[in-house]
Amino acid sequence: MDSNYFVVEPNDVKALDHAEEYIINKGGEIFAAVLNDEVLGVCALIKSDGEEYDYELAKMAVSPKAQGKGIGLLLAESAIQWATEKGASKIYLESNTKLKPAIKLYEKLGFKEITGISSSYDRVDIQMMLNINF
C-alpha cells in the first residue's frame, strides 16, 4: 500500500497484517509480480460475503520503480482470470480518482463506475464493477 497517496487506514492494517485469515482462508487469493526475487507488485481478490459481487479486487500496489511497465495490468488480468475460473460473474473495486493511471487501467479491463455500495474507507471516491460474461 503506497502511503505516498493516502493514510493507511485500520482496515488496511487488518487485512495486510492478517492476509491469510482475512483473504486466503475466506476463499480469496493474493497475486504477486516477482522479478529476480523482488516483489514488484501485488493485489488481492477478497471473496464477498454479500450478493452484490463475487470478489473485490483490492490492495493493488506496484513499486514506484516498476510503474508504467504493465505490472498492474498483468496482476489484474491474472486476478480476473482466477476469479473467472472460480465461477465469478462480478468483480468489484474501490479506488480514488487521484489515481488516474489506476482508473484508466480498470476502465481498460472493462470495469464501469457504479454507486450504491457502502465503503469502509475514507479515501474511496469511486467504485467500479466488472461484469464477467460467460
Task: Give the arrangement of secondary structure elements.
Layout: H1 10-17, H2 19-24, E1 29-35, E2 38-47, E3 55-62, H3 71-85, E4 90-95, H4 100-108, E5 112-114, E6 126-131
Parallel strand pairs: 3-4
Antiparallel strand pairs: 1-2, 2-3, 4-6, 5-6
β-strand amount: 25-35%
Shape: globular
Cα-atom Rg, whole angstroms? 14 Å
Give the strand line-up of the largest sheet.
1-2-3-4-6-5
Task: Report how far the terminal alpha carbons are from each other.
Answer: 32 Å
Number of helices: 4
What is the averaged pLDDT score? 86
Number of strands: 6
**Major sheet attributes:** 6 strands, mixed
Derived structural class: alpha+beta
- Helices and strands, in N-to-C order? HHEEEHEHEE
Low-pLDDT residue spans: 1-6
What is the percent of helical residues? 25-40%
Structure explained in plain terms:
The structure is a single chain. This protein is α+β, with helices and mostly antiparallel strands and 134 residues long. The chain contains 4 helices and 6 strands. The longest helix is centred in the middle third of the chain and has 15 residues, at 71-85. The chain is globular, with a radius of gyration of 14 Å. The termini are far apart.
